[in-house]
Amino acid sequence: MDSSQLLKGVLDLAVLAVLRERDGYGYDVVRRLRDAGLDEVGDASVYGTLRRLFKAGALNSYVVASDEGPHRKYYGLNEVGRAMYATQTKTWTTFSATMANLLTEGSAR
């Protein structure tokens, strides 16, 4: 099974979940996703997802000065993003339960 295809399908939800905890800038979100076990997540995919979610109205953004280099653009969930997170969480939970049941039933035969 190609895990990169699975990751593409759930990257929006994964990014929303990370930002639900606290706001973050691009590489911070990448690091937090990798720390959570999504080792294959690519920097460009996360940055693209952040831009897309921002354009969709799900995220707020603000710039913070950094002592260690250029300013950092932080992203955080707004009401639209929290609603999107809730909807996608419900969809994922239902889908993953269905797959778990299917795989369990399939192995009993």
Tell me the helix content: 55-70%
Q: Spans with pLDDT under 50 lasting ≥5 residues? A: none
Number of strands: 3
Largest sheet: 3 strands, antiparallel
Mean pLDDT: 92
What share of residues are in beta strands? 5-15%
Rough outline:
globular
Enumerate the strands of the largest sheet in spatial order, edge to edge or round the barrel.
1-3-2
- Structural class designation: alpha+beta
| Radius of gyration, CA atoms, in whole angstroms | 16 Å
Number of helices: 4
N- to C-terminal separation?
22 Å
| SSE order | HEHHEEH
Describe the structure.
The protein is an alpha+beta fold and 109 residues long. 66% of the residues lie in helices and 13% in strands. It is built from four helices and three strands, in the order H-E-H-H-E-E-H. It has helices at residues 3-21, 26-35, 43-55, 79-108, and strands at residues 24-25, 59-64, 72-77. A three-stranded antiparallel sheet has the order 1-3-2. A hairpin with a 7-residue loop joins strand 2 and strand 3. The model has no long low-confidence stretch (mean pLDDT 92).
